[in-house]
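Hi team,

Below is the intake form for DUF4838 domain-containing protein from Bianquea renquensis. Please confirm the fields before the structure is written into the shared record.

FORM ID: S-0412
PROTEIN: DUF4838 domain-containing protein
ORGANISM: Bianquea renquensis
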Amino acid sequence: MLLTKGIETHVILPSDAKTREQFAADELSKYLKLSLEIETQSADHISDTVNNIVIGGPGRNAVCAQYVDSHSFSSLLPGAEGMYIKISGNVAIIAGSEGDFDDRQRGTVYGVYEFLERYLGCSLAAYSAPTVNAGEMIPKYESLQLEDDCYIKAGADRPYRAAIIQYGEAAGNPYHQLNLPFIDWMCKNRYNRILTWASVYEAYKKTGLCEEIEKRGIRMSVGHHESSRMWLPYFGNEYFPEHYAQTHPEYYRLNADGTRYSPLSEEDHTGQWIYCSRNEECIAQVSENLISWIGQNPIVDIIAFWPNDGIWEQCRCEKCARHSKVENYTYFQNEVAKRVSAVYPTVKIDMLVYVDLWEYPEGETLQNSLLIDEATWAADGQRCCGKPDGSCLSKTAFEDNLLAWKDAGADVVYYDYYMGVFPGRQRIIPMADEVQSIWKRFSQVGISGSGTQIECFNIWNNLFNLYTFGRTAYDSSLSMEDNLKAISSLYGEGGEYVAEAIRLMEKTLDGQEVIGHAGAYMIKHIDRELVYGLFDKALAVTVNTTARNNIRLSRMAFRYTDLEVSDSTTATREAYSRFQTYEDPTGELAYMASHFDSFTHNDPGYGIAIPVTNTDSDYIPDQWYLFE
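The structure came back. Fields below:
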């Protein structure tokens, strides 16, 4: 197939194209125009005189069935979210798995992105604000010869690949301009699920983001630490107007002083597990409310029914007092899962287990519709990170505990932190080298997957972690070097220098520290001047302006980590604050924050987090801040 600048290409969709198939065709057309100025036209048959790209397999597209029969196709793609790309002469077929899969044609969407990357040389590994010349790299061609070829990925290696979307920074909000670029980036890099707060989901509905999520076939887990405010609202809400605190105070935790749980304000989401876990009427009411809500929100297939945040004492009523806190918590969740699955058998209840609600209560038998979401933050702390053999997580107490929940009958996943935790302050935490081993281990022991916490306006601080997580979760055969080679194209001619800087960071962190302190450990022990020298070389040899700006953003993440950790005020400050004022003698941190940060100081910003309060700066920018 010879693609020539400006020459028409036909795109052939199924006659009854689904939302995702139409979206896949639209994405293909967009990037063909960007790369070769090709205008695509819809067609219903193959033409001998133009190039033809067929979207959808033989069970969906009658034109595809002329080239491959359904039985052969299904045998090639036996799993969900598989992709099939075949180029022969002037015809290319791009299709995803068919059959009894609830994968929402994601394989077809992935197939388009694979086609663009594999055959056109595009890199879809990063984003920035739409008005900024940074992020994706789309090569420009006068013509491009695509040799006959066939690429097949039989299915996704693990079914659960989630971005746990946080809005923890002060200016974080679900109306931010980088929400859509982030969701777009997720799909392109093989994440298939968003897990977020109930209020964020409701905002997505108001802003039209749910339609964008639906287009991409992404599923949603909703609830988080706002679950109690959504499905048994203390003061009532738009779905459930009853003020349960007044009508049923017995549903809530009995405190040691004889009072019942009460939030500090209508907005409070602390207090941990706030219910009387053995109150059968409370369990029935929560289940009834969930069933009603699910019927109104079909895009949501997992309810993240989590405790409020914090660590508190459990209910002191006579029934609850006979059991441990985690036993009561498990009983309640298991009973809710049983009731909800009787009406919606494909919906799961996600039960977060972390800190002192972490350890499997021996002897419990669990519903398979209960999804155990184990945070890598147990009662005795977080996991270490960075060992390439995966041994900071695999075959540790974290895995033993998760498999105990699995053996009791539940489905199981991890809640992990490839962007760190809040006290890590968005520092670079190089832990991508362990991802390959971890995901291979998931397949061996039957762990369904993992989600990683992400501040959704920021990918650059830990870009390689987040890229590697999504890509390897889908295809665990990928090595770190495979992913490093792929992401290096973001940096043009300087790609190998940036790759070497990433290798140095990954090598420096080798399991010495827990996630919360790993970024500080890395920057204190790495040869910083060597890393800066590599970024210097990368910028010096790179011509493309987008690539040059991508180098600047990755170097800025390293520079922020360096300056933040070296600031003496951070060494003595005891109270954690998400945004901090620094000594910052040169004003460089303040300059970064005021000009590039995507949280407090700029909307949309550049897709990088510089959580710095002070913004008064006399710093004179050098080449690293002069974006082109």
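SUMMARY LINE: The two ends are 35 Å apart (CA to CA).

Thanks, M.
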